[in-house]
Amino acid sequence: MSTQFSRNLKALMDNKKMNPTELSRLSGIAQPTVFKILKGQIKSPSIATAEALAQALQATLPQLIYSADLPKEADPVAGFRKVPLISWIQAGSLTPIEKLDDFDKWYLCPVNISEYGYALKVRGESMEPYFYEGDIVFIDPEACADPGKIVAAVDDGSVEPEATLKKLVKDGADYYLKALNPDWPGPKFIPFTGTMRIAGVAVGKYVEL
What we know:
By secondary structure, the chain is α+β, with helices and mostly antiparallel strands. Helices cover 23% and strands 24% of the residues.
């Protein structure tokens, strides 16, 4: 079944009178991958693949992801900001993200995210089935951490503070960090103490194939 991405890709290829073989050659994306995307067998290509296809078609990512009819200068969301992939220890640091350097990997966030947003790679199984190990989660340190939100929380009282991904819940006047995996052998609820803080709110995720 065709997907929005594949439909937009076909429309942009038709506009350029470009066939899959030529698109593969210009983009550097393997021809079987191009065919799978066009058939809808690959519904969410990686950001690197999408960027390569867009460049080959002289198009933009919004045109590929949202609508091929968008003008080239259109920006349908305030997102599409490239954010750095940082470590859980860096997320637990009080060092502002803009002062951290030597980032090896960046991700294009497809949703609204503030200037200081960043990405984390999910570890462990405590948040399954919503987040699996290896998923990329986008964290916005300026988003409002309301109860019910998935947050990156840090305990500054620990020897080496680092962030953990949990759901923020409220019971009366008390707050807790909740693991969403019903089979998680560890504690399901962690009291949110006075030494803890929110390092950001999860605003989206990206799954690498």
